[in-house]
Amino acid sequence: MSYFPAFLNLRTKRILIIGGGIIAYNKLVHLLDFTKNIHIISQEFCDDMLYTIEKKSLSYQQKAYKVGDIKEYEIVIIAIDDRALAKNIYEESREYKCLCNSVDNLEHCDFTFASYIKQGDLTLAISTNGSSPAFAKQLKIYLESIIPRDVSGFLKEMKELRATLPKGKERMNMLKTKAKNYIKSWRKI
Ligand SMILES: C[C@@]1(CC(=O)O)C2=NC(=C\c3[nH]c(c(CCC(=O)O)c3CC(=O)O)Cc3[nH]c(c(CC(=O)O)c3CCC(=O)O)/C=C3\N/C(=C\2)[C@@H](CCC(=O)O)[C@]3(C)CC(=O)O)/[C@H]1CCC(=O)O
Ligand SMILES: NC(=O)c1ccc[n+]([C@@H]2O[C@H](COP(=O)([O-])OP(=O)(O)OC[C@H]3O[C@@H](n4cnc5c(N)ncnc54)[C@H](O)[C@@H]3O)[C@@H](O)[C@H]2O)c1
């Protein structure tokens, strides 16, 4: 079964990252593109993680994970190097209604992180269902080379048109043609 692609509003969601190594740091950086409502628990923190925690004024605790620490969170990311503990935390998470991501085991993921491009209102996310994160990243790099820098400006213009023109068939056709021609113009770049 494949993961369902959805775009979540994280504004009201409390997120916990367990772990302070490079992988936890990568997940943190990606989450920070969308929310600052993040707490981190770890025994040790890498320098990049500590720098970012300070710069973004994030809350954190330097300690070993204790049963119950995940209780208050809607989203939990397990990014530790202890597979047995990761499994225990995942099993504990089943008692709550939180969504769990475990960086070491796809079977322990209610959701996975996507490789993504974010330019203004355009977010493009890639999943390989865990088959090849390396491929997801390279495909992202390829798509980044195709999508022009002014895409966010184009979306602003489209948003404005949708807000001002009266709804109906005429607007629909006009927006469709404009979008089609914009994408067609990329081939000439
Ligand atoms: C896309 C991206 C997003 C992000 O991290 O935010 C992401 N992994 C990225 C990179 C990456 N990860 C790995 C490599 C080495 C090459 C390779 O193995 O391919 C590279 C490449 C690199 O770093 O260059 C190794 C790896 N990854 C996972 C395992 C565990 C396992 O498979 O069991 C192992 C083995 C660990 C080991 O060997 O010890 C698991 C997961 N990694 C996922 C996401 C989820 C599935 C996404 C999908 O559907 O593809 C999933 C299931 C869970 C999750 O993490 O959510 C990010 C690219 C960000 C970008 O675009 O810049
Ligand atoms: N999903 C991915 O994209 C991906 C990619 C590469 C590796 N991984 C996996 O991710 C895991 C983490 O990798 P890393 O390089 O960040 O490891 P790391 O050793 O640098 O960091 C592990 C972190 O977990 C913390 N930790 C360990 N036990 C803890 C406990 N009981 N309570 C609180 N914190 C604890 C440590 O203090 C440390 O900060 C590895 O197992 C690796 O196989 C995943």
From TrEMBL:
Pfam families: NAD_binding_7 (PF13241), Sirohm_synth_M (PF14824)
Biological pathway: Porphyrin-containing compound metabolism; siroheme biosynthesis; sirohydrochlorin from precorrin-2: step 1/1
The EC number(s) this enzyme carries: 1.3.1.76
GO aspect biological process, one term: siroheme biosynthetic process
GO molecular function: ferrochelatase activity; precorrin-2 dehydrogenase activity
Stretches of the chain forming a coiled coil according to its record: none
Reactions catalysed, as given in the entry: precorrin-2 + NAD(+) = sirohydrochlorin + NADH + 2 H(+)
Protein's recorded name: precorrin-2 dehydrogenase
